[in-house]
Amino acid sequence: MKAVKVPKERGEEVRRLIEKLGLKDKRRRIRYEDGHVIIPVLDKFQNQIDGVEVFHDSSPVFVERKNFREILEGVAGFYPRFADIKLFGRVAIIKLPDSLLPYKDRIAMEIMRNYKVSAVWLDKGKLGMERKPRVELLAGRGSVVLHKENGCVFKFDVTKVMYSQGNQYEKIRIARLVEEGEIVLDMFAGIGYFTIPIAKHSKARRIISVEINPDSYEFLIENLKLNETRNVLPILGDSSKVSPSDFADRVLMGHLKAHHLIPKAIEAIRDEGWIHYHESVPVKILERPIKRLERTAESMGAKIIEIGMRKVKNYAPNVYHVVVDARIRKLSK
């Protein structure tokens, strides 16, 4: 890493010139050694200033980066629950409660400085079954990112499609549950959140991936190519209308507001198979997702022969994101 070395008496003069040229490396600290000032510079610095020595700095001292909590406390004086930051490449997405919205622009500028990102977006929620994000640009520019997770690559536009890092373990957990030769239906494929880890880390025979949002579907196609998958059939459409019946060994329901499509998931199962059903549920009625599956299966002449539920993450105050794993047998078959 490049730096310049100047006598102490010229340190302030040279620092100002370097900053005026926009060539100071802000990631590293200025330090003093043996009566000289060491000023970190960017690699493109070509000794534009007379009387300075340019050298390779093998002992850089980096600026300590504030974490998200420290930024919020520094700007607003407090750190509320459920404030959150997600980093995708050089793009940051932040979620702020109402109490922090008056400080949003100052928070964004501090994030730009501390995390060295190119853009900061405010997450304002998602719309409808298509899960279209509502976001607001607070600082910088840029929205298309490449994100790596679980050995998979995901390309997406944060203004067009949602992405949840909090489900990272759940994605690889499901991929490891898939047995060799299984046919899997992903009813809400998005950009490939579950589809691609299954394709990369299991020996599924076929994955049918349905997505209703055209923007998400476009990135799904691109991500299937980026990850070199060969056993995925992507479908653009509404799962309630295009999902086949009596074919799947395993059905993924990764949408948090899709309980009305549980019958469609059961229809998709061959004779016996698994449904992985996601829901956001208040703590006081935590058994609701299980009861929904049980009631629906009974009404359709099916039987749940194995069932369990696990918490994926906190979704909101006193609300959990949970997933129910249910093994269902169609008794009428």
Overview of this protein structure:
- Helix 2 runs antiparallel to helix 3 (104-115) and helix 4 packs across helix 5 (195-201).
- The chain is an alpha/beta fold and 333 residues long.
- It has helices at 11-20, 68-76, 104-115, 168-177, 195-201, 214-226, 239-242, 262-268, 288-299, and strands at residues 2-7, 31-33, 36-40, 53-56, 84-88, 91-95, 119-127, 132-140, 144-149, 152-157, 183-186, 206-211, 232-236, 248-253, 269-282, 302-316, 319-330.
- A hairpin with a 2-residue loop joins strand 5 and strand 6.
- The protein is elongated and about 90 Å long.
- The protein has three domains: 2-56, Alpha-Beta Plaits, CATH 3.30.70; 68-142, Met-10+ protein-like domains (GMP Synthetase, Chain A, domain 3, 2-Layer Sandwich), CATH 3.30.300.110; 166-330, Vaccinia Virus protein VP39 (Rossmann fold), CATH 3.40.50.150.
